[in-house]
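ok so heres the complex, two chains, lmk if somethin looks off
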Amino acid sequence: MSIKDFAPELTTLMAAFEEQLREVVRSEVEFIRLIEEDLVTAGGKRVRPRLVFLSSNALGGVPHAMELALAVELLHSASLLHDDLVDDAETRRGKEAAFRKYGNAVSVLSGDYLLSRLMALLAQTGRMELVAMFAEVARELSEAEVLQFQVAALGEHSLENYERIIDGKTASVMRVACEGAAVLGQAPFHLREALARFGRLYGQAFQMRDDYLDLMGSPEALGKPAGGDVREGKVTLITLWLLERHPEEVGAILKRKAREPEDIPRLRTLAVESGVAQQVEAAIAARVEAALGALRLLPASSARDELEALALGERVRLR
Amino acid sequence: MSIKDFAPELTTLMAAFEEQLREVVRSEVEFIRLIEEDLVTAGGKRVRPRLVFLSSNALGGVPHAMELALAVELLHSASLLHDDLVDDAETRRGKEAAFRKYGNAVSVLSGDYLLSRLMALLAQTGRMELVAMFAEVARELSEAEVLQFQVAALGEHSLENYERIIDGKTASVMRVACEGAAVLGQAPFHLREALARFGRLYGQAFQMRDDYLDLMGSPEALGKPAGGDVREGKVTLITLWLLERHPEEVGAILKRKAREPEDIPRLRTLAVESGVAQQVEAAIAARVEAALGALRLLPASSARDELEALALGERVRLR
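and the predicted structre for the whole thing:
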């Protein structure tokens, strides 16, 4: 039996993942089926299950990696369904947001259905430590989403709140994807810590890039108009730093949620001219660098190389 | 050491429950705190934790009954928070529905926060079988709630759908409250089965009574106007049977969701005159009777007597 039996190629794993995901979310209730089919066929990049499989392979393969991969993706999908209400997002993964088609109610309850499937998958792993980890991640995730709402409602914008939000919303899920594989493989402490750190730092870089591109990206690449966060009253790293440099002008734009047609172009120009855009790019690059540092604690393998390539892909430089 | 050390009185347990519930739902995020305080202080009858403690005591006391009691109540509370969207309920436990105060978004995400606390409590019991059971109950619950929405939207009214809905929405949670205690106590199969059957039948009677009173109860006792379900397009046992007897008149009222001021009084009169009200009362009494039959398989105890009294309290007779 070769190592391949325990650690199949990523493409093989991802194909099996798509098939199993379809199985896992199947419901006898028609309205749930409509929502889930949407989620499943819409696809998305499946970053979180990729992290699970690569972490598993970097450890030589771990039992129940598939259940973990499905569980992290379901947590993410449920949070999208529950977050659509908050976001009032025009588009989600390039498709009309689920709630516009079927109503908020069915979206929320279908999200709950996914969470029930997540619990069943965790039970199948037989590892109570993983149940406890997911409970904590689900707590961080819901707290961060409420905090984001609270910060927007009360204008409590600060670097500290921004970091709490990206940690809870994104980095915590990415971390459990990587660290969870180590738990399933009963990996030694230093390898588990390395994967946990990698996942968390990678997740921070991932969300920071997403937030940066929301303002600075091209509408074509984004698949939606730039500046969506500003229009929703969400302040991210780039707007926080812009606010420090140009408190009056940027403050006024944020306050009116970029209602004027020239507001978003103006923020983009200011970001480049003041050097804030480059500063954010550097902050992302620093997270990527730290993530790579954590990876180096793992033994060399092609899976480790792929994790490295994933992280390097989060660096951004627009000009 | 007496039996009392393992199976304290219900009042003692319920007081400890209220205290622990407050601890468990505490969050550092202010907006979550607002919602949870509302839920905690609003109280409610705490029927589900009562079932846990009485089932535990009927078995002589089981380990982790408190965690189970908290978990079933949190599942119920989360489902109220997620269901407020569906219901558009005017009142909930006599208080303004949470979502009217703080918005749908925070309600949904605070419900998710409660679900994360539920998972943590289940992990604390150390019993993976309980995690798997809750996963199934959460599935049934979300499926039933979506089904209820689907049935109202598509007019798929039938006795079969009504039974699926009350089983999933209410009976499944009541069942896990009772059966879960047996799992924690590693009770012999026949006692576990007896508690599972009791919980399910009790839950059916409980929901059937609730639905019956929604149309037939006095607004004073209900704390809201009668006929709320009809106005929301929900068909329950009494309206299903009324529809069979008077397809045209009742069909027209249901179709216009009792928009005319005389519609609800007319349904009430028809229900009594046609004997449908009495028929529903008898159906509820039959469930109670069957629940008592299941209870008799347990050894005699004061906790068993209290479970019996709870079930007898679900019988209803208005005239």
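quick notes: The first strand of chain B starts at residue 91 and ends at 92. thats all i got rn
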